[in-house]
Amino acid sequence: MIRLDVWVTLPNGERHHAGELITSDPNQTRGAIQGEFRYSEHYLALPSAFALDPQSLPLKPGVFAADRPTAGIHAVFEDALPDDWGRRLLVHRYRLRPTEQRAPNLLRCLGDNGMGALSFGEGSLPPRTTQMPDHSVEQLLEVALAFDAGESVVEADLSTLFAAGSSPGGARPKAVVHDNNRHWIAKFPRVKDTFDVVRLEAATMALAQHSGLEVPQFKVMDCGEHAAFLIQRFDITEHGRRHMISMQTLLKADNYYVLSYSDIAEVLRRYSANPSTDLEKLYRQMIFNALIGNTDDHLKNFAMLHDDSGYHLSPAFDLIPNIGSNSEHVLRFGLSATAPKRQEVIGMAKAFNLGSAQANSCLDAILCIISQWREVFHEHQVPEQDKKRLQAGIEQRINNLQAH
């Protein structure tokens, strides 16, 4: 059995004991884990208390069963964990055997180093806030490339990578770094990359910003033969943290799912403190993803943040063109997962509380920006061969959404 105290750090820096998380040992037949969570009386009495998951953990007394036998914990707690890359580092850092790599034990190892405002500890005191050492991006990139390639890495360099790289999510190599008193996620190239993904992501984020999407601050840092893409963390405030919950959690979409942008819109209508603003932001991002070919639009790439006024749609992140030659998006446009036609996108406007005229105006404005994608990619030094490989797909998508 694992028992963890769950702590939440508010944007003003206050830390509160939010509740208790208990999971059983895996059973002997299928390895299923039973888990439950209850809010603390202290947290329930706070004027600033809010539901950590308004869908599955409403703010009230009682025991909430996880009903997720593979993970054994509610999905909102798993949102704090990194995905592939960070989990690999956690496993190596704590030398976890396969039987020790389940989500509850990973949370125990993660402590205060996760994404969002939640931290996990054992005992009456909150886990100590880890002071991240100031490692150079160049040093981290070099070690990350070696680790990703499966090369032998000396223990001191591994410790450097473990300290900086075990909290960010996603599959690509990355690390948390500090620069000018700001917290950044540095995203590195992979050994087997066939595109310059670093410069492609920077160019795509710039194009998104020009298209009216809210995006975090970002920059590219040259590191000798390679480069790193730095994106400012939007879950960290000047004094504290913002709670973060993924759309995958809010839609209870474990494993394989067939869902659309309209399903995310329904979540925003239900839980956003400002649904009209957030729905328009989501509609704009849907159009952008359709035009640029961001087929990796899975639900972990959409999140809500909590502040003093409630839940809001997070800034857009993990935006990249279709470098995997995927014929379908993860999320559907209505009933279709392929690149949508104009009438499909306009027909979806009602789900976002938008009228036809407003939807057409939004689409045409973004089309005008995306039509200049080559110039923006050139400004961000995307290699010519990468632009040529992406050109046919992007131009076809632009043509699909133009008025004829």
Automatic annotation (TrEMBL):
Annotated HipA N-terminal subdomain domain residues: 32-120
Domain HipA-like C-terminal: 166-366
GO cellular component, one term: cytosol
Keywords: Kinase, Transferase
UniProt keyword annotation of Acetylation present: no
Gene3D superfamilies cross-referenced by the UniProt entry: 1.10.1070.20
One GO MF term: protein serine/threonine kinase activity
Full protein name: HIPA PROTEIN
